């Protein structure tokens, strides 16, 4: 069955857009991070602090494969790092997968993340200057993987509704 997979950097809106796309299409949505948290019975922060990032990436890969193999139509909001580990980017090319990269500029990401970093262990302890530099470098490193998506939607300056409409247009 068909999977609509949203990917992109932390703060680009994967979780928010997946939820809103689901409301309009009536296709159920799953947030990969939330699925991992439920499975581990720990928050993302706790998984990172108690078990480390390598363990998180293992759980993330297993959960992603599980969701892709489920028999339902579903919208999946990935974590920002999902396509960048364990060859997960290859899974974006699957026959029943429609993958959409929500592309945001460094400024958009910084402005959204600066007040929303506490639940994101990779940036939670950074000051503003460190964060801007980190986002710039990290986004550059990860872009190769994000660009493996079948579709791309630029989200800068767009409302949630506008981004949802753009995705609907692409998938029509
Ligand atoms: N136009 C927009 N589209 C998506 N998110 C937006 C927008 N404007 C503000 N936001 C906010 O940006 C944040 C995006 O975070 P989230 O959806 O968790 O992204 P991700 O899952 O990609 O990390 C949320 O706090 C959301 O309310
Ligand atoms: O970019 C990353 O490596 C991560 C992004 C997070 O998801 P969001 O992109 O939804 O914040 C979450 O999976 C974890 O903190 C690691
Ligand atoms: Mg998210």
From TrEMBL:
It is found in: Cytoplasm. GO terms for cellular component: cytosol. Gene3D superfamilies: P-loop containing nucleotide triphosphate hydrolases. Its main location: cytoplasm. It comes from the Bacteria. Keywords: Amino-acid biosynthesis, Aromatic amino acid biosynthesis, ATP-binding, Cytoplasm, Kinase, Magnesium, Metal-binding, Nucleotide-binding, Transferase. GO terms for molecular function: ATP binding; magnesium ion binding; shikimate kinase activity. Its EC number is 2.7.1.71. InterPro entries: P-loop_NTPase, Shikimate/glucono_kinase, Shikimate_kinase/TSH1. ATP binds at residues 11-16, 120. Pfam families: SKI (PF01202). One of its GO terms (biological process) is chorismate biosynthetic process. It catalyses: shikimate + ATP = 3-phosphoshikimate + ADP + H(+). Binds 1 Mg(2+) ion per subunit. Mg(2+) binds at residue 15. Pathway: Metabolic intermediate biosynthesis; chorismate biosynthesis; chorismate from D-erythrose 4-phosphate and phosphoenolpyruvate: step 5/7. Its cofactor is Mg(2+). Substrate binds at residues 33, 57, 80, 142. SUPFAM superfamilies: P-loop containing nucleoside triphosphate hydrolases. HAMAP family: Shikimate_kinase. Catalyzes the specific phosphorylation of the 3-hydroxyl group of shikimic acid using ATP as a cosubstrate. Monomer. Belongs to the shikimate kinase family. This is Shikimate kinase. The gene is aroK.
């Amino acid at each position: 069955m068909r999977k609509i997979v949203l990917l992109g950097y932390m703060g680009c809106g994967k979780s928010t857009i997946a939820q809103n796309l689901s409301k309009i299409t009536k296709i159920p949505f799953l947030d990969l991070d939330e699925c991992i948290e439920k499975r581990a019975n720990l928050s993302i922060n706790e998984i990172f602090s108690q078990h480390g990032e390598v363990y998180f990436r293992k759980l993330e890969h297993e959960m992603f494969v599980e969701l892709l193999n489920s028999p339902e139509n579903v919208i999946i909001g990935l974590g920002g790092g999902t396509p960048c580990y364990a060859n997960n980017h290859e899974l974006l090319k699957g026959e029943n997968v429609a993958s959409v990269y929500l592309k945001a500029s460094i400024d958009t990401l910084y402005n959204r993340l600066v007040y929303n970093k506490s639940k994101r262990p990779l940036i939670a302890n950074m000051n503003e200057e460190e964060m801007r530099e980190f986002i710039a470098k990290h986004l550059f490193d990860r872009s190769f993987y994000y660009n493996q998506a079948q579709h791309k939607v630029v989200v800068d300056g767009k409302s949630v509704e506008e981004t949802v409409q753009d995705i609907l247009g692409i998938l029509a």
